[in-house]
Amino acid sequence: MLFPPDDLQATETTLNRLLITKARCPPFFEVPCTDFHGQYVNGVAFMYFALEYFHTLELEVAYVWGEKLSAVKVLFFVTRYLGFITNGLLMSFFGPSPSNGVEVCTRMYWLTLFAIGITITSADAIICVRIHALSHRCRKMAVLLSVHFVVVFSAFYTLLVLDLRMTTLAESPFPSHLTCLIVYRDYSRVISLLALVLYNTVFACALSFWFTFRNYRHSRSPILKVFYVNGTFHFAIMAAVTSAHIGLVTAGPVEFHLLLAG
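RE: above sequence
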């Protein structure tokens, strides 16, 4: 048997959804009409990134480009610019494409998830640098953050590689609507990955607020607004998106499992 029964059932369910949607689409529609709304969500995310980029480009040129290259600047550029590539890869994975075979689907899938992983890693490294600065560059906190970072992301990439190696992809029978199909994936590993990201977000949020409150509670500097308001917004959005992603993977249909991956 080529695939286990669960794999065949998942493939049949996905193909049925594609066939039903294909039948519902009026023949005069030029835009591909599928249940795979991930391409549209990631298209909107790409537009948001572009708008945010041009809105803050002047500040980036003034405060970042003219400074000496450092490890933090490299992390900043990776986090800022790799998101565009990641969203482009996600739109390619979800969108229509010429039939290229399973090997191309597999390479695209690996590249997309590793790009997402590198973006998350770079962003979290910047957060660790920020927490270290808030702690008044405490040496013990530097050791704690370094050990925590290594342990968390060692587990993250171990789970990611296991997930990638044990996921089965197939070429889409409707390449004009969808590039690749995920035939089999153990979503318990995906949930573990997302839970790890959520835990890391809560951990970083708690430390940031603790050091901001302990070291700067008597300060009237406007920078506190950045720490409290913008910091709260950032961590709240990250936690909400990760929680929603866990919910989609746990209870949503298979075609929505990568919906919030970007």
